[in-house]
Amino acid sequence: MAEPLSSRELLEWYLEAGVDETIGDAPVNRYLDPPAIRTAASAAGNSPPPAPPSHGMEDAPSTAPARPPAKPAAADQALQSACALAAAAMTVEELRRALEGFDGCGLKKTATNLVLGDGNPEARVILIGEAPGAEEDRQGLPFVGASGRLLDRMLGSIGLDRTQVYISNTVFWRPPGNRNPTTMEMAVCMPFVERLIELVDPEILVALGGAAAKVLLAQNVGIGKLRGRWFAYSTPRLPRPVEATAVFHPAYLLRSAAHKGEAWRDLLEIKRKLNPL
Ligand code: URA
After folding, report:
1. So what's the pLDDT on residue 17?
2. What is the pTM of this model?
3. pLDDT of 32 strictly over 90
4. Using a 6 Å cutoff on CB, does residue 250 contact ligand 1?
5. Which class in CATH covers the domain with range 74-274?
6. Phi first, then psi: what are they for 129, rounded to 5°?
7. Domains of the chain: which residue ranges?
8. Residue 124 to residue 106: CA distance in whole angstroms
9. By Cβ atoms counted within 10 A, which residue in 79, 201, 208, 228 is the most buried?
């Protein structure tokens, strides 16, 4: 029989599984019997986990007609609701309220805060990253951790700060354990991202990193091939196409300093577009 795990091994196992934060203020003793855990969780203000579905052999044969699979219908519904809510928002603040009331993205369940955006909603430049991380989740603001500090320096190098740009992400809640957002999570947030771009109505859209570049520029090649190129980004409600490009993600630049030269050239091109001779 396998040896029981030590506390350290158990913690490492949790970390590898993506659990890097405790959720909830009150501790829960997981050594208690399951019913006792549920009681403890309720006392701590957490709702009890739903009863597991019974798939046992002891189930009586059902005469109910087969139901269509639940997942696609729920996903369709979430997408439809996202489109309707996003379309109805007439300001960035209304979009925030719409997102606060939207439960169609599973990421919301594990996140602490909604991370909609930061900066000037009337900016000439909008930057879209991939997903909030731990610090962003804590503060409810995008790019406030280590990569955010580099992003601020990158913007500063071309004379911009957060009063002159608007910053957001392809999803508005932190994926647990900083995993990549799934295609579905990105798809269900995309109507809100598009509406955000329409409401800011910038002159320049910058995708930060490969994941944002792929969904926003609708290109199926990596960031190494997309950066430095310019595209026309349009939606039916934008008054004119927005000039769109992609740059290396600041988190990537923190790990791969060799690419900073290319990032610098891309930033200079953005500056040149903003200040033509
Ligand atoms: N990385 C991102 O893509 N977005 C953030 O907000 C923070 C880090």
Report:
1. 57
2. 0.78
3. no
4. no
5. alpha beta
6. -95, -160
7. 74-274
8. 32
9. 208
